[in-house]
Amino acid sequence: MRGTNLSKADPNNDIKHLSDLMKEIKFAMLTTAEEDGTLHSRPMTAQQVEFDGDLWFFTRVDSPKVWETQTHRQVNVAFADTAKSKFISASGTAMLVRDREKMKELWTPVLKVFFPAGIEDPDLALLKINVQKAEYWDSAPTSIGRTFNLAKAYLTKDPAALGNHAKIDMK
d(Cα 138, Cα 146) in Å, to the nearest integer? Predict the structure, then answer.
């Protein structure tokens, strides 16, 4: 993995920061392309694991998102925590994974709400997103901090004072 960013920071630090942000944000919006090319987004529960370039989501094999990703593998996953001004956009390729050991590794009891038959459900699978590019925005978590940063950016004419922002090439 290699990071390229908008600041002079170490790209590996950007990848670590991206991973930390992903752990803080529980839900994401997964965007796929429908058969006619229109975009389709839906909320997903992100698996809270150390980000190593792949994102993992539980799904049912017969889900429309599975059909869509088999036709158009390119997807986008967006994370947002508006209360803390933290945002992530990650694009990559999707693949259906039916590895029971990986499912057991990622399974948590709360998933039974969405998948009542549990880990042994034959229609249960994982959607693996291999992230190729990501971008994050991370501002001060309070309105006072954001106002201060906005004033600083305005006075210094330096948009970097608004917060952390990086583009990361995961290739």
Answer: 10
pLDDT of residue 48: 76
Each domain of the chain, given as residue ranges in start order, spans 11-169
The dihedral over CA atoms of 102, 104, 109, 110, expressed in degrees to the nearest 10, equals 20
**Spatial contact of 33 and 71, defined as CB atoms under 8 Å apart:** yes
If one counts every other C-beta atom within 10 angstroms of the C-beta of residue 127, the result is 21
Report how far apart the first and last C-alpha atoms of the chain are (Å, whole number).
5
Of 90, 109, 26, 96, which Cα lies nearest the Cα of 63? 96
Whether the Cβ atoms of residue 46 and residue 57 lie closer than 8 Å to each other: yes
What is the dotted CATH code of the domain comprising 11-169?
Answer: 2.30.110.10
Which amino acid type is present at position 155? L
pLDDT tens per residue across span 131-144:
999 999 887 555 55
pLDDT tens, residue by residue, 11-29: 577 888 888 888 889 899 9
H/E element holding 66? helix 64-71
